[in-house]
Each structure stands twice: as C-alpha cells, then as structure tokens.
Design a protein that fits this description.
The chain has helices at 15-21, 25-39, 43-50, 54-67, 89-101, 107-118, 124-133, 153-165, 170-177, 181-194, 215-224, 232-241, 248-262, 330-344, 361-369, 386-402, 408-424, 440-444, 454-460; strands spanning 287-295, 306-313, 318-325, 349-352, 373-376, 465-469, 475-477, 481-484, 493-499, 502-507, 510-519, 526-534, 557-559. It starts with 14 loop residues before the first helix and ends in a 28-residue tail after the last strand. 37% of the residues lie in helices and 14% in strands. The protein has 587 residues and is α+β, with helices and mostly antiparallel strands. It folds into 6 domains: 15-77; 89-133; 147-198, Arc Repressor Mutant, subunit A (Orthogonal Bundle), CATH 1.10.10; 215-262; 287-444, Nucleotidyltransferase, domain 5, CATH 3.30.420; 464-543 and 553-559, no CATH class. Strand 11 and strand 12 form a beta hairpin. The chain has 19 helices and 13 strands. A 5-stranded mixed β-sheet has the order 3-2-1-4-5, with helices on both faces. Strands 6-9-10-11-12 form a 5-stranded antiparallel β-sheet, covered by helices on one side. A 3-stranded antiparallel β-sheet has the order 7-8-13, with no helix packed on it.
Length: 587
C-alpha cells in the first residue's frame, strides 16, 4: 500500500501557529495537555502559553490520566455501551446485582456499598443510569436465605457480619434477612467484643447469684430499719450512698421480712391527693422556700423545743442553708439567709408563711435591697410550700436520732449528718430525669443566683451583723466589752448579730454564745450585758483547761475601761531637734 505523502512543515511550539495545523478536536485537546501530562508542566503555565482556562486544562489532564485516550473524546463521541463515568465493569455488575437482589435498597446505599468494596463512591445519578443501561444481573437468587431458615446459628450470625462488612446498613440487613434491627445490632456488638467466639449460641443461665442481697447488705438494711420512719425509698437511697445498689422494691421485701422477724416498726403513711403546686420552679433559683421546724423530742437538759431554720431551693430540692437554733428570732433567720446568699447568690423570690419573723421590716428591707420578691403562701395551706415536704423527709431521716441526742453537740452532729445525706442521696422527685441526675446536689450543680459580693451583703445588714476575730482566750472585743465565744476558734473571724436587745455570736451558722444587752441612750454603746448562754459545739480547743469551770463560775462578759486620752506634747519642747547645735554669736 502506497504511503500517503504529507506536506513537510516546520516544527513550532507557538500555540497560535500550532492550532492552525490541527484538524480534529481530539488533536486540539491532546496538544493542549501534552506538556502537562508528559513533561509535568503546570496547568497555570500551560494556560498562560495557550490562553485557555487553567481549570479546563487541569480537568482534561486529570481525565486523560484516569481514562487514557478515551478521555480525549467528548460524551457525544463515546460508545453508548460505555459507562458515562468510566466505572469498571465489576462495579457496574455489582450495582445491577444489588438492585436485583434487594429491590428496596436505595441508590445512595448502593453507592456506599460500592465505596466499601471498590474504594470509589459513584454518585446516585450514576448508579441510576447504570441500573437503567447496565448489564444483565449475574445472580438469579438470594445470597443468604432468611435468618430463621439458616439452621446453623454460627452461619446465621455470620451472614449478618458479612453483609455489614459489604457496606449494608442495619435496617437493610434486617429487612433482607427478615429479622429485627435489635438482633442485627446485638450480633454486630458480639462480633466486635468476641469476634468468632461470639457467633455461637450461649447459655442464658445467670452467671451471678440470683440475688444481690447478701447477708452484709441485709444487715445494713436492718441497721437502717432501727429508724421506724424510713421507708423503702429512703433505705434504697441510703444504701446507694454507701455504694450498694439495691432496688426500692427489694429493700421493701427485705424490710418486711425484718419486721416479721424482729418486730420492727413500720412507717405511718397518710395518703393525700396530689395537688398542683403554685410555686413549682421551672429553673434553678427561681423560688427559694424558708421555714422553721420545731424539734420537741430530745434529751437535752432544757426541755424546751429547739428550732431548725432551713432554706430550700425549689427546682433541685437542695438544702442551701440550715441551722439548729435555741430561738426562732430574726437574728437566727438572718444568719441562715446570709449563709445561703453568700454561698448560692440571690433568688428571684422567697416563699414563706405569714409568720411575724418573716414579715419583719429588717428582713423585708434586705429583700428589697437584693431585688428578691417575697411570696406568702395562703393561710391554712402549708402544703403549698415545698419546704413542708422537705420537713417530712427530715422527720423520717433525722427525728429518730434527734430524740436520742442528750447534748447540744450531739444535736448539731445529727443535723449536720442529715444535711449532708439529704443533699447527696437520690430524691424521689428526680427519679425520672433524663440527664441521670438524681440527688439534689447533682441537680443544683454549679448554677448560682444573682451574685453579690460579700461586702454588699454586709452593707445590707450593716446595722445587725458585724465581724470580729476571736483572741487566744476565746473572747471578742465589741463596743468596749469582751464577750466569750469559743476558745477553740482562736484567730478565726466570727459573726456578731445584734438586734432588739439580743446579741449572738455565730460561726458558719452555728451558735457559739448568746447574750442579752442593754444600750445607752445613743443606741450604740452597750450599758449592760446579762443572761449569758454558751452553746455546746464541736469547735473544741485541743488544749485542755486547767480548771473545769461552769458558765456561772467565770466572767463571760467583761466591761473594758475607756480608752486613755491621747498625750499631748509638752509646751516649749520642740517636736524636731536641730541637726547641728546652735553656735553662739561672737563678742
């Protein structure tokens, strides 16, 4: 065959001249990208030499690298049987087989299966076109029969693992094998935990004892049952605080058994219809509740009742501040309120009853200064105050030990233990919370109300509260008097509360001493101090006393002498001596 003779032309790299010599579009594309794919020239350099778009050159070069000479042709010049995206034949066959085997599998899920098996994820549009124009399915039946029809349990679970390894979703596997998604999830979890060892059937016999209630746990329940006011929920909460997890129902069964064996008492219940609470809080520190509870059953030398003053946060049911006091006067209430404000900030409103101490002008002025709204419950409806239900919990948890306290220190210890246990134990009101917080302390967390510096709180209560430091002998100095507080708190600041003829020394809401004072005509200087009363506290000095004296055998209050007048300078004596002696004049 005779060779066709072509005209000899001079070689050139000038794109304008070269472009005139090219006849076919494929030639143009090849010459455009040849320096890029052969010599490694960048698309930007080639674009500046030819005037073409940089992105066009880069895209055509990538297509040539991916598809070869086929990438030089446009879509209209390709053969119809070829895949528009250049998918390899095995991937196209797999797409068709998946649609034939699982007609309900979505296009995007088929693309995910391709990404898992071939490392390349086609678009769902490409998958749809391959299904429409692709080859015939290579498989007529199913790969795996339904889950229940596979006799071998290992093969049943292995089918789930294989389908999931191919990229199938859990819902598609469950639908294809005609089982539940829970079975698929459980099988995959066993495969993750144990690999092939988790595919075989396992015995359903319990691996632990049938009951969690050992003799030690039953003994702890019996010790808690010495308080007859505790029900199954409170026993369950106390055990959980000790790290023992037993359900309330189990606690109830064990307690019933103990009552039958030992004749223990059973808590009395007075069922009441549940009513809507008007002061139910929707957020933390929206409402606080304050009230005073009488403790009449105790073994103190003085048979008079003692009082527990408490402040409750309505949303979390946390006890913010509480104190045992021999009196229920305004000073005791202010001390507890000051402790709660200093620790947790100020609430939006405080709920109380119509007692005179809660309507005192000094207390209302403090509310106004701190922007606190006072809410009063309706007369004859104490149940509308959340703290009443809290007092019911206190009755069940602490009254048994209150009745056995013979000293004031024991009474304070019982109250301190109750506050700690109440805030830490799970609360009935939080049993259904979705965040897993069950105790009042967990629900309250770090959230505080409107924060005020301690200097502001002192300024609000400037006429009633003062801070003094205890000297080494246990006394404080206040308005030309030495008043005894507690020798065990030497060097520690304590609060001095003065109001309406009463003076109280407190440390962390714990009463140290109380005095009755009479003021002079100016209302500032103390004229007389009488009726001293010391409280038993846990703040004892490590140094033993030489003599054990009673309150009436030594001076608890001592009037100090007036300050001596300041000495004035002697007339004629200069205050500053001259640096050099005077020189007498000559002659």
């Amino acid at each position: 065959m005779a060779e066709r003779k072509r005209a000899l032309r001079e070689r050139t790299e000038d794109w304008a001249q070269l472009r005139l010599l090219l006849k076919w579009p494929e030639q143009v594309v090849y010459e455009l990208i040849r320096p890029v794919v052969v010599f490694g020239e960048t698309a930007g350099q080639r674009a500046r030499a030819t005037g073409a778009q940089e992105r066009t050159i880069a895209r055509k070069a990538d297509r040539f690298d991916r598809e070869g000479l086929l990438g030089l042709f446009g879509r209209e010049r390709r053969e119809p049987a070829d895949d528009p995206r250049g998918l390899p034949p095995p991937m196209r066959q797999r797409i068709v087989d998946l649609r034939a085997e699982v007609p309900g599998m979505s296009l995007r899920e088929i693309a995910e299966v391709c990404a898992v098996q071939f490392g390349r994820r086609p678009s769902h549009h490409t998958v749809q076109k391959v299904i429409a124009t692709g080859p015939a399915p290579s498989r007529a039946g199913r790969r795996f029969p339904p889950y229940a029809q596979i006799p071998d349990p290992v093969q049943r679970r292995l089918a789930i693992v294989r389908l999931h390894a191919d990229g199938w979703r859990v819902s598609t596997i469950a639908r294809y094998l005609e089982t539940t998604p829970r079975t698929v999830y459980r099988t995959l979890q066993r495969w993750v935990d144990e690999q092939f060892a988790g595919l075989a059937d396992k015995s359903h016999a319990p691996t632990q004892p049938a009951t969690k209630v050992t003799l030690a746990v039953a003994n702890e329940i019996r010790k808690l049952q010495r308080n007859p006011e505790l029900g199954e929920w409170r026993v369950h909460a106390a055990l959980q605080q000790l790290g023992i997890r037993v359900s309330p129902r189990t606690c109830g069964r064990i307690m019933a058994r103990h009552r039958a064996l030992y004749g223990l008492g059973k808590p009395k219940r007075s069922p009441r219809p549940k009513q809507a609470m008007p002061y139910k809080a929707g957020r933390r520190h929206q409402y606080w509740s304050i009230d005073i509870r009488y403790i009449e059953q105790h073994r103190l030398a003085d048979s008079k009742p003692v009082f527990v003053i408490s402040i409750l946060e309505n949303y979390s049911r946390a006890l913010l501040a509480s104190a045992v006091s021999p009196t229920q006067d305004l000073l005791a209430v202010l001390a507890v309120l000051f402790a709660a404000l200093r620790r947790c900030g100020a609430p939006e409103a405080i709920v109380s009853d119509g007692g005179a101490v809660f309507r005192a002008k000094q207390l209302l002025r403090a509310y106004d200064a701190l922007g606190i709204r006072r809410e009063q419950i309706p007369p004859g409806q104490p149940w509308t105050n959340y703290i009443e239900s809290h007092f019911g919990v206190m009755r069940r948890l602490a009254d048994y030990d209150f009745a056995r306290a013979a000293t004031w220190a024991e009474l304070l210890a019982v109250h301190e233990r109750f506050v700690r246990d109440y805030n830490a134990q799970v609360h009935w009101a939080h049993r259904d919370r979705q965040d897993g917080r069950r105790s009042p302390a967990e629900v309250l967390g770090w959230v505080q109300g409107a924060a005020y510096p301690e200097e502001v709180l002192h300024r609000v209560l400037y006429a009633m509260q003062f801070i003094r430091q205890v000297d080494r002998h246990g006394y404080i100095r206040f308005r030309h008097w030495r008043l005894y507080g507690e020798r065990g708190l030497a060097g520690t600041p304590v609060a001095v509360w003065v109001y309406d003829g009463s003076l109280r020394l407190e440390y962390q809401t714990v009463l140290l001493a109380a005095y009755t004072v009479a003021f002079q005509g100016d209302g500032k200087h103390i004229r007389e101090v009488k009726h001293p009363r010391l409280a038993e506290t846990r703040f004892r000095s490590p140094q033993l006393a030489l003599f054990d004296l009673g309150p009436d055998e030594w001076l608890l209050a001592l009037r100090l002498p007036a300050y001596a007048p300041r000495k004035r300078g002697t007339p004629g004596v200069p205050g500053q001596l001259p640096l050099l002696p005077a020189v007498p004049a000559a002659g």
